[in-house]
Amino acid sequence: MDKNARIYIAGHRGLVGAAILRRLQSEGYANFITATSRELDLREQAVVRDFFAAQRPDYVFLAAAKVGGILANDTYPAEFIYDNLMMEANIIDAAYRNGTQKLLFLGSTCIYPKLAPQPLKEDYLLTGPLEPTNEWYAVAKIAGIKLCQAYQRQYGARFISAMPTNLYGPGDNFDLEKSHVMPALIRKFHEAKLTHAPSVVVWGTGKPLREFLHVDDCARACVFLMEHYEGADIVNIGTGSDLPIGELAALVKKAVGYTGDIVFDTSKPDGTPRKLVDVGRIMALGWKPEIDLEEGIRNVYEWFLAHVNMVESQVRGMC
Ligand code: GFB
């Protein structure tokens, strides 16, 4: 990528988009196109077409998405499938029609079958049934992958797809009903520490295994793939190691300095039993993660402490 190339980051205020923007800025890129969801409703085809015709970005990072944790995915299936399908289809087609040189689509590791062998190789896509709590989101993300592959196959478009594992980092969503597990646990343990609560409730059995990648590592991988990868095949982004949710809870408890108990609420879903990606493909290209999980948790807790007022007012605004 030329340092002066016009780069559109769709979703630049989200967890991943903001990290990609920070990464590109740190690497000396300076010519960005951004628009908030209020300014540009990516679900509207005509609006997206007009935006691309006017802006004509050279490169597109497609990080805009309707996202959420296990409960949000399970509660709002219509929004998770419709919003994501519309955003992807509109952006990918508009990028093709307006001469975008290259596009990176961000998927998710929930695209893989619920009971696929572990670690999850890219080839396991579409080999079995999906995890029911997030199949709506997964189907939309699979459609995004197929859109990129179709435009590449039919038109020679350089549209590539990456599948990040469970991400966490500064600027995450800390709303307990909608968030992923990491921000939820940080907030729960922090509030329990302040109120001297005797215990913290962790959803499910604590047994499901998850892999966690700091969003700054993910952003570095996204920029790396944009610069070095041209294939039609999807590429996993992860650390290659996972841990049970119960152990994650113990790590967050330690980082926060909470001394009470952990209680598991088994009325809440566990979701998929394990979701560990095979990172052989991206590592063979020359990328590897740098932020260790305990260091990453400390980093996000520090961010949370510095932004706790903002987080609380955002969460109140969402209710
Ligand atoms: O992060 P999470 O919501 O998403 O949940 P998934 C991971 C695990 O943590 C599940 C447990 O087993 C949850 O039951 N968990 C424990 C909690 N306590 C909590 C809590 O307080 N909040 C939350 N949210 N979970 C998502 C998909 O699946 O992963 C998305 O729904 C996407 O589509 C995303 O793929 C990356 O890992 O289960």
Q: What labels would you give this structure?
A:
319 residues; alpha/beta; Rossmann fold; 6-stranded parallel sheet; 3-stranded mixed sheet; 11 helices; 13 strands; 45% helix; 14% strand; binds guanosine-5'-diphosphate-beta-L-fucopyranose
Uncertain segments are none
Strand content: 5-15%
Distance, first to last CA: 41 Å
Q: Structural class from helices and strands?
A: alpha/beta
Give the spatial strand order of the biggest sheet. 2-1-3-4-5-10
CATH superfamily: NAD(P)-binding Rossmann-like Domain
Helix content: 40-55%
H-E order: EHEHEHHEHEEHEEEHEEHEEHHH
Average pLDDT? 97
**Which kinds of small molecule does this entry bind, naming each only once?**
guanosine-5'-diphosphate-beta-L-fucopyranose
The tally of strands reads 13
Radius of gyration: 19 Å
CATH topology: Rossmann fold
The largest sheet, given as strand count, sense and whether it forms a barrel, is: 6 strands, parallel
